[in-house]
Design brief:
Rossmann fold; five-stranded parallel β-sheet; binds adenosine-5'-triphosphate; RecBCD enzyme subunit RecD; helicase; isomerase; ATP binding; 5'-3' DNA helicase activity
């Protein structure tokens, strides 16, 4: 155990949990500080408080006391992982009883401090409890009525915009979930359009906006995404459709922070519950990456009479901060009745039986329509085994996942960590192509070539981590080229990853680019932005790193032709279904899984379980 991770002040049970690697020093410090301020001396409360802080650190909104012992402990550098069952757990009922009378929960004579909430045996840090309540209250209020819609106009628009792809003289065959999604978004103040990559979410959003613009000439549209990269991608793909669907003008998208008016150095936003955003419709893409805190701020700032359309893939990894709001909203029970307008405008889709291309709506899907939620299921981009593999992972079917991986299908492969010849060939050929274009000053070609293959890892460090594999890749490239790459200087063909938002230079955390020759012997950085690359002097780049391998978390929101996924050993807490799903769905033409059968099975079977009260309705 690394000493810095052990809290010096921790004693007794807290110290044992800290040394075992369940708690970090910060969890212990926060718990002890709150206990001192509130005058709480009982160890079960100290432990529950520290575990609640840990739960938030790991992405949950609260600590589920019914599952308090379900903690995963990673292997330690100096030995095997501690079995959590061997730790000195207090009696479950003793924890609950102590909390029920704790001044940290019920308040005490030391003042108004009440940092914990105990609700239905879920222990919350007060801040997250209040945010969850706000989200629930605003969503429930927005669900009590429906926007007024000119049904004739909507029907005509749906008929015009959702045509058969092969034969545009005919409307698309029923059921068409994209058409249903458009009607759902028109019929609700809040709607969720969920779906995997390439299911046509953006295609549908462009049509929804066109339909709403016809209903409300002069419609003010706000487009946003949690990251700059995702916002740039949303803007680009919606604008490709502007002419096709008849939108009045090109649109711009921004990060959620920017839309809300983030003010440097404060935690306040310019737009909030008293100063609402000036839009009639707001579309948020990549909503799976939105944290509870951000969703709370957004909902507070949306006018009650503005539509909010949340778009994303609930099966992907959730936000790095606490909360998995999109997945929670999808799982949340539906309340209220279906908007009768839906049956009038998309009745044929709702009652259609199976079509060769799309299955009939299930009872559960029909039920979700009541809360303005629809999941697009028909893949429009990649067919073949990548989509099947992603579905098998999502459905937690490890045997099917392994069958597909071993099927010999041309778009999927499964290799041992010792057998990296294929990875090496992909790394070298991609780099050769990127470098040739970069040296020729062809920024578009270099950026395009850099999307040919990407090496993805679960971890950042260690033998399965991105840093280690990036060094391998640099060695392979150096050997193939006959000269070593020098990570301390700029060179043509160098792949870049931006690690922090820089609003001034308009590059954002997660942006990827390439160093190219600027023609006059000078090197410049090129970033993909729509049709024209965005060029920037190297001296203007603040936080960037060379990226021959990246973490799966970082790759969210991007796609590549070929992807090699380095799985960690079975036993890593990062290895989850959401991680595998996200990694696989980054690939357009080929996904290569590098790892063991045990790691695949464990990943498919372990779901990230983020405790939250939103799911309970
Ligand atoms: N109904 C349709 N008919 C024909 N082509 C379609 C249809 N829906 C989507 N497409 C095409 O399929 C591709 C994927 O669509 P789109 O980009 O909208 O998917 P997405 O769900 O937003 O994907 P991602 O999550 O990867 O951004 C696009 O090329 C789009 O033009």
């Amino acid at each position: 155990m690394i000493e810095a991770r052990v809290a010096q002040r921790g004693k007794g049970v807290l110290r044992e949990f800290n040394e075992a690697g369940v708690l970090e020093a910060a969890d212990v410090h926060v718990a002890l500080r709150l206990a001192t301020l509130g005058g709480e001396t009982r160890e079960p409360v100290h432990l529950a408080t520290a575990l609640a802080v840990r739960a938030v650190r790991l992405g949950s909104v609260c600590l589920d006391l019914n599952r308090i012992r379900e903690v995963h402990v990673d292997e330690r550098p100096d030995g095997p992982a501690v079995d959590p069952a061997t730790l000195p757990w207090p009696d479950d009922s003793a924890v609950t009883e102590a909390l029920q009378s704790s001044p940290l929960v019920v308040g005490g004579d030391k003042g108004p401090l009440r940092p914990l909430r105990l609700v239905d045996n879920q222990l919350y840090l007060d801040r997250y409890y209040r945010q969850e309540q706000t989200v629930r209250r605003i969503l429930d209020a927005r669900a009590t009525g429906h926007p007024a819609v000119d049904e004739g106009l909507l029907l005509a628009g749906l008929d015009e915009l959702f045509r058969d792809h092969q034969d545009p003289s005919r409307p698309s065959a029923a059921p068409d979930r994209q058409r249903i999604a458009a009607a759902v978004a028109a019929a609700h103040w809040t709607s969720v359009i969920a779906g995997g990559p390439g299911t046509g979410k953006t295609h549908t959003v462009a049509r929804v906006l066109a339909l709403l613009e016809r209903q409300h000439p002069g419609l003010r549209i706000g487009l946003a995404a949690p990251t700059g990269k995702a916002a740039a991608r949303l803007e680009e793909s919606v604008n490709e459709q502007v002419g096709v669907v008849g939108l009045q003008s090109q649109l711009s998208a921004m990060t959620l922070h920017r839309m809300l008016g983030w003010q440097r150095g404060t935690s306040r936003f310019r737009y909030n519950e008293t100063n609402h955003l000036p839009y009639d419709v707001i579309v948020v893409d990549e909503t799976s990456m939105v944290s509870l805190t951000m969703m709370c701020r957004l909902l507070e700032a949306v006018r009650p009479e503005a539509r909010l359309i949340l778009v994303g893939d609930p099966d992907q990894l959730a936000s790095v901060d606490a909360g998995a709001v999109l997945a929670d909203l999808v799982a949340r029970p539906a309340a209220g009745a279906e908007n009768p307008m839906l049956a009038k405008v998309v009745g044929a889709d709702l009652s259609a039986t199976d079509d060769p291309a799309e299955a009939a709506l299930s009872a559960a899907e029909r039920d979700r329509l009541r809360k303005g939620m629809i999941r697009l299921s028909r893949g429009r981009r990649f067919g073949g085994q990548i989509a099947q593999l992603a579905i098998a992972v999502r459905d937690s079917d490890p045997d099917r996942v392994l069958d597909i991986l071993r099927s010999g299908a041309p778009d999927v492969s499964f290799v041992d960590i010792e057998d990296v010849a294929g990875v090496r060939a992909d790394v070298v050929s991609t780099s050769t192509e990127v470098t040739a274009a970069a040296l020729a000053g062809d920024a578009v070609g270099a950026l395009r070539a850099s999307e040919k293959h990407r090496l993805l890892c679960a971890h950042r460090d260690g033998p399965f981590g991105a840093s280690w594999w990036a060094r391998n890749a640099m060695d392979w490239i150096g050997e193939a080229a006959g000269s070593r790459l020098d990570p301390d200087r700029w060179y043509a063909g160098q792949p870049l990853l931006v690690t922090a938002n820089d609003h001034e230079t308009r590059i954002y955390n997660g942006d990827t680019g390439v160093v190219v020759s600027g023609g006059d012997g000078e090197l410049i950085a090129a970033f993909a932005r729509g049709k024209e690359p965005y060029l920037l002097r190297l001296g203007h780049l603040a936080l960037v790193q060379t990226v021959y391998a990246m973490t799966i978390h970082r790759s969210q929101g991007s796609q590549y032709h070929r992807v090699s996924v380095i799985l960690p050993d079975a036993g890593s807490s990062l290895l989850t279904r959401e991680l595998l799903y996200t990694a696989i769905t980054r690939a357009r033409t080929h996904v290569r899984i590098v790892g063991t059968e045990d790691a695949v099975r464990e990943g498919v079977e372990r779901q990230v379980s983020r405790a939250s009260g939103l799911r309970r309705g």
